[in-house]
Amino acid sequence: MAERAALEELVKLQGERVRGLKQQKASAELIEEEVAKLLKLKAQLGPDESKQKFVLKTPKGTRDYSPRQMAVREKVFDIIIRCFKRHGAEVIDTPVFELKETLMGKYGEDSKLIYDLKDQGGELLSLRYDLTVPFARYLAMNKLTNIKRYHIAKVYRRDNPAMTRGRYREFYQCDFDIAGNFDPMIPDAECLKIMCEILSSLQIGDFLVKVNDRRILDGMFAICGVSDSKFRTICSSVDKLDKVTTQAVLLQTPAQAGEEPLGVGSVAAGGRYDGLVGMFDPKGRKVPCVGLSIGVERIFSIVEQRLEALEEKIRTTETQVLVASAQKKLLEERLKLVSELWDAGIKAELLYKKNPKLLNQLQYCEEAGIPLVAIIGEQELKDGVIKLRSVTSREEVREVAEDLKSGQNRAFNFYYGTTPFSYKAQEA
Amino acid sequence: MAERAALEELVKLQGERVRGLKQQKASAELIEEEVAKLLKLKAQLGPDESKQKFVLKTPKGTRDYSPRQMAVREKVFDIIIRCFKRHGAEVIDTPVFELKETLMGKYGEDSKLIYDLKDQGGELLSLRYDLTVPFARYLAMNKLTNIKRYHIAKVYRRDNPAMTRGRYREFYQCDFDIAGNFDPMIPDAECLKIMCEILSSLQIGDFLVKVNDRRILDGMFAICGVSDSKFRTICSSVDKLDKVTTQAVLLQTPAQAGEEPLGVGSVAAGGRYDGLVGMFDPKGRKVPCVGLSIGVERIFSIVEQRLEALEEKIRTTETQVLVASAQKKLLEERLKLVSELWDAGIKAELLYKKNPKLLNQLQYCEEAGIPLVAIIGEQELKDGVIKLRSVTSREEVREVAEDLKSGQNRAFNFYYGTTPFSYKAQEA
Question: Does residue A140 belong to the interface with chain B, where contact is any CB pair within 8 Å?
């Protein structure tokens, strides 16, 4: 394999040389000569027998979340959800796909970015493009005229992804919307407040909120003498202009707000959509709505980059104690203890080995950031105690087995209370 | 509309009469006569003008989650996630769709149930059918040989839905899997333990765990003289037999376990899949795996039914206090206070009305289950205090405004501590 790797490297270098010569407009003879060399090397290399049958990748514009990325995601979601709940929102969920006709005529030119499902018989379906249209469908279908809800879910757009900047084809939206007939601007103001609260709590730096009301634009167009027939086209042009220069927000709704932290582009947007629900209602009854959407993917990128820069160690499990043994043939005893700890609600693990070495068990704790190890040995079993050791400080206490099992263990509770483990060890 | 409803009922009844006569093989004349009556009634009814342009529904086999259903879902997930974390699992997520070829050849006959996406140019994609194959792809792609992870997400099957029994085309799976080379049966035993812990915590009644090892069946077949060529077919027949009689578990994996609470069918299943990761690895390197999957949709159904039977009132928001006013023209003061409460981390709401009536504000609290109302009036503003009232007991205390805003309010803290609000009111 080492030989193959060397050959592959040679092919690569020779390919670069050929490209270089072509760029420099070298003589045809020289290029031909070098191409011949390249072909010879490629022939030597032959087909890669080890090449896998499957392309091992996620679809274009999508990604897996590793445990570390999930930790970031849960942290961000936690902040956002806490804010939405603080503002009294209920929560709903809708299917990942809708009837194709539900989405049709809602997104203008962007409709071409909708993922359709294959017609395998039955209904024609499309993946949701945002959470707003499914929300409007939900309101009309359930004849709701009044709700304040949030919805956090993935949406799908066949766009050109720019994943390094947090732009994906499958991405999360965190939406908060207020539907109902209310006095002007009160729900709108709350949406702005929510945006500010969330972006402040996330500590991703300074941000700028742009507030606009399309009726101002309407008035300017009227003064300029724009005819009704040209109105939509001009709006669309202004919209694009804005997107190109500042990557800001949608201009399709009467009122709106966008956020633009330095160098990141828009991470939140919102506005009114008073006509959408009426499009679904059989009698065209309108339900005025206002809402906001947080673009969390960009926020994930920022937080991930910050954590990487800090080289901060993030735990991806919450295990409190590893059940270990110092001698061989104690698998059953380890299983018994770990099982009793689980039943007592304690987060515990054991190595899936019959006779693991104590050193390996301690190393596992250090790698996984597990703070405590409960060690069983012949002597401890005889005495009816368990040795509880702090992995970092290496301090040890011998605890009555029954106490540990019942979750009433004092050292354990000390550790997970406000007092560090060492305090108990000194006291003992 | 009442007239129309009556006519519709008549059409329905006449239709039933015609069908009945046909079944009884009545005379042709009689049937003709009744069909004529039916057609006349239908003509009278005419087309339904109020019929909406859109079919207002979710796709077949899918559903929305209302705030109430979300409360059930979050409660169930919380129990399951706490258990998975107690066992030291990390968490991952994968895209909702995979390359079509990733799923191909993994599900045998069931492949016909996979949702494909329409070919809109680019890669051919399919919605995930379970979380196991994406997990195996994730392991191979990242060259992981050792991980314990959980994954809770929706999967998609073009199956015949039986939604009343919790069978959907879009449904959640809660998977816990242990991948790696370990000593025999230790991770398998933990998977069984996890199933039991979860089903016990959910308090959905007694359950039966069926444990099996397909190698026993292999041995029986060998003794019976089953040839290698017939082996797969016979396994498949036995598999179906089992499904028909007990709705139990998959028989495709060497070892397995299924759960069957009385009258509900299987709500969990699991087993080993030692060969799957190797199917993705370019060099066929195997990563032995064992895991379990909780079928939460059925559990949601059970819990929802139980709650309905109990007529238990479930709060769908967490709002702690409504900011209200007793007089008109206090919108700004209400907005100022609610804003300060939000900044102090208190869950608060206000009505989106300029001048709401106090009665309406109190009614809103009762409907939404909000326990406290902070009332601002002219006098309170002068005195720099806020009247804090318990909605149920109607007890009132006057609190210094600054204390309430800073979140340091004693009555408020008492209420949300262990002591009920009335305690503070008596003490005051």
Answer: yes
